[in-house]
């Protein structure tokens, strides 16, 4: 029987995107705080253990709630929560497998270039963004050592937060809010499902390499 968590996540993600598109804060309060918990339920149903990805999803939930509150203090609180998310994911990925050196170098170069471009426009957010974006870039680099699916999720997570950074720097693109949330939701989905598959194969090797997320 197919687990209900993926369809529920898809439904909640659609509701969240509708809320963003309509500018409905109430709809966002209803949907956004459920995104990471639904994936946490999926992760728990598959692995029955607390690991770095589970911790990351818990703090992602706290960060999502904080970022729904207006103001700089709430923004910094949300960034702090997501910093813990990135560090938890980074730790889990590195314990699983070391990433290719080329990927790590590429993400560090991207981190340095992006911060150099935005440095003059971030004002008092410069140092918090510098530290957070370093953790985010290292997480995305470490994700390349887990699987292609997790690597894609890490890259999308970085892309989503880069769009937020552009907004903080005063750069606003058409449909930016929808881009931020859609890439973020897909990033969490890819990271969680990819992690379940990669760790299930490692824990229970099988000659057929069956994906635990497929229909039984």
TrEMBL record:
One Pfam family it belongs to: YhhN
Membrane spanning residue stretches: 75-94, 101-119, 125-143, 150-171, 177-198
Keywords, alphabetical: Membrane, Transmembrane, Transmembrane helix
Major location (coarse): membrane
GO CC annotations on file: membrane
Membrane topology: Multi-pass membrane protein
UniProt entry tagged with the keyword Membrane: yes
GO molecular function: hydrolase activity
Places the protein is found: Membrane
Family listed: Belongs to the TMEM86 family.
Entry protein name: Uncharacterized membrane protein YhhN
Source species of the chain: Micromonospora narathiwatensis
């Amino acid at each position: 029987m197919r687990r209900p968590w993926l369809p529920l996540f898809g439904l909640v993600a659609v509701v969240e995107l509708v809320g963003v598109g309509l500018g409905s804060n109430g709809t966002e309060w209803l949907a956004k705080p459920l995104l990471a918990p639904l994936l946490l339920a999926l992760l728990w149903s598959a692995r029955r253990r607390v690991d770095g990805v589970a911790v990351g999803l818990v703090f992602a939930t706290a960060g999502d709630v904080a970022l729904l509150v207006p103001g700089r203090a709430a923004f910094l609180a949300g960034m702090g929560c997501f910093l813990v998310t990135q560090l938890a994911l980074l730790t889990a990925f590195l314990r699983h497998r070391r990433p290719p050196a080329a990927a790590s170098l590429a993400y560090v170069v991207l981190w340095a270039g992006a911060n150099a471009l935005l440095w003059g426009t971030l004002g008092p957010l410069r140092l918090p963004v510098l530290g957070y974006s370093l953790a985010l870039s290292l997480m995305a680099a470490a994700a390349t050592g887990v699987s292609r699916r997790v690597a894609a999720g890490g890259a999308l997570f970085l892309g989503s937060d880069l769009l937020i950074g552009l907004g903080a720097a005063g750069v606003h693109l058409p449909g930016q809010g929808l881009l931020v949330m859609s890439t973020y939701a897909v990033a969490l989905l890819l990271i969680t499902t990819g992690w379940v598959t990669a760790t299930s194969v490692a824990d229970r090797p099988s000659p057929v390499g069956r994906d635990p997320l497929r229909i039984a």
